[in-house]
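Title: Prediction job returns without error message
Component: structure pipeline
Severity: low
Priority: P3
Assignee: unassigned

Description:
Job completed but the reporter wants confirmation the result is attached to the right record. Sequence as submitted:
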Amino acid sequence: MERDILTESILSDKTTEEQRLRREKRKEEIEKKRENERKAAEAAARRSKALKKYVAVALVFLVLMIALFGKLVVQIKELNAAKAEALDKLGELQQQIEELEATLETVSSPEYIESQARSQLHMIYPNEVLYVVEDGE
């Protein structure tokens, strides 16, 4: 009976030792799990911070592109207005050239030259008589 008590005592010591070892092992596992969770949370925070930086850079880039695009649109409108104005001026100048060419053709004709020589310079052909009538005021 003493042996049984002694055996029981040894067995209970072994079980308590085993239980203690299991508890320590569970504590270590829990600590490792917490450490892994903490590291994962830190990594997630770093990724989140990096993502925020990328988003901020992308937004700045987007704003700059929109501003540049807006400026280019304004320049295009201004250039189109200038082009339209230049085309109008070109049309006017071409019309003026056509009128001047017609005038040049008219004044270059021998009939026009003769009429101007007679009326303004009072020129006459040989063997012609020129009569000048003055107003009788």
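Comment from assignee: result matches the submitted record. Residues 2-121 form one domain.
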